[in-house]
Amino acid sequence: MERLDHLEHLDRHLVDELAQVARETVREELREQARKQRRTATLYAASGAVALYAGAALALAVGLALALGLPDWAAALITAAILGAVAYALRSAARPSASRPTTAGHGADATPGSPAPTTAQQPSGLGTPYPPMPPVAPGAAGTPEPGAAPRRNDTDPEQPHHRA
Above 80 in pLDDT, residue 65? Predict the structure, then answer.
């Protein structure tokens, strides 16, 4: 019995030691990954700052070039309009395809009066403004016509109010 107690003590010691080694290995790996990500983030931030100054210098050059043939205020106004158009184009390219029409549910094969697809988004880009309607045939057992107000006899107070 003494021998088994000694082995049990060794087993516990071995498990504790293995757990400690595993923790140290994971910590060191996480430190290394964080160090690499920090360096990458620093380089991206520096790149963004330099690109901002490059864009400002380009805008200044465009304004000065326009100022050769136009009054200064007109050159500044045209430069601002060009920058605004570029910003709008970049924003449109970055947004989800809400502003671009999709082929599903639109076009020549769309049925007049059919509901909009459930993937439509609000102009704010926040997703659908209302939950999608379940695909139930109009006039099916107990379902009112689309757009019709529910009648008092349509709901059973004994039944649960959710659908499976």
Answer: yes
